[in-house]
Amino acid sequence: MENKKRMQIKKYYSKEVLLLSAGKPNVKAVTFDVWETLLLERDGWNLRRTTARCESLEHTLSKLNVGISVEQLASAFKKMASWLESVWETRKEVTHLDQIRFIIKTASKGLITVKEEWIEDLSSAYVSPFLEVAPYLNPDARRVLKWLKDQNKLVGLVCNTGLTPGFGLRMFLAREDVAKYFDLMLFSDEVGIRKPESKIFQIVIKRLKVEPSAIVHIGDNLKNDVWGAKNAEFKAIYLSTNVGRDRIAESDPKSLVSISRKLKRLRKDQIIPDKTITSLAMAIKAIEELDT
């Protein structure tokens, strides 16, 4: 009789646990890629921004009594692409200061080394063109971010920074009045790791204190965002669209934009997202479906 009573109590509490679990959301946090997901580009914008960076660096170097032409700097930028690719293949990141050092050393054929007292001026010269030749915020971003906060979801971003450092991107997101929605901003130049390396997603897990299976990552890059997130046991939503992409840069196999999209040894059929959307606005429905 006592055993039967215990079994009934155990069965009752098991049902209670199941009912409680059923009411809990499956998705507790959502993270976003930045480039071509939250921030969009225009055709030719990458080349225009690089040109602006060369002109800005030339102007600043001139003030420091260093004579390096815009043409020499532009040539160094092109050479930097292959160096960055070789580093990125190891899933490590290069800070914007190390990029500046490489550019000036290459442009001067090794004759000029960046002095410590130049750093602040050169950093400003390198970053300010990003805010002048700026990307534009995805028109759906504010609505999706606000909806997530209304749903009490944690919100983060995981960004491979490329040429623009994390502090520059933070400034832009603050200027667009969307920084307030984020509980976590993770930039590759600040942690030294790039997507698709699983360690960068593990940092998200640790800082948000959420199990990986309860996190959804949204991005436009099959390798970095989908394959990378799935390897870290996140759910992944693939943003598949041609809107907001610099097609001119993508058509140049030597551009950093083109390099960042290479699948290398992976095939598309090996990368399977949990959901595919063609606009960021569709993320709301996709998350609702993953949340049930």
Describe the structure.
Helices cover 51% and strands 11% of the residues. By secondary structure, the protein is of the alpha/beta class. The chain has 2 domains: 27-43 and 135-290, Rossmann fold, CATH 3.40.50; 45-132. The longest helix has 22 residues, at 2-23. The two termini are 40 Å apart. Mean pLDDT is 92; it is low at 1-23.
Count of DSSP helices?
13
CATH topology annotation of the largest domain: Rossmann fold
| Average pLDDT for all residues | 92
Largest sheet: 6 strands, parallel
Query: First CA to last CA: what distance?
Result: 40 Å
User: Structural class given helices, strands, pairing?
Assistant: alpha/beta
Label the overall shape: elongated
Q: Can you tell me the CATH superfamily of the largest domain?
A: HAD superfamily/HAD-like
What fraction of the residues are assigned to beta strands by DSSP? 5-15%
Extract low-pLDDT stretches. 1-23
Order of helices and strands: HEEHHHHEHEHEHHEHEHHEH
Main β-sheet, spatial strand arrangement? 5-4-1-6-7-8
**Which percent bin holds the helix content?**
40-55%
In short:
This protein is α/β, with parallel strands linked by helices and 292 residues long. It is built from 13 helices and eight strands.
Question: Which key features would you list for this structure?
Answer:
alpha/beta; 51% helix; two-stranded antiparallel ribbon; 13 helices; 6-stranded parallel sheet; 2 domains; 292 residues; Rossmann fold; 8 strands; disordered N terminus
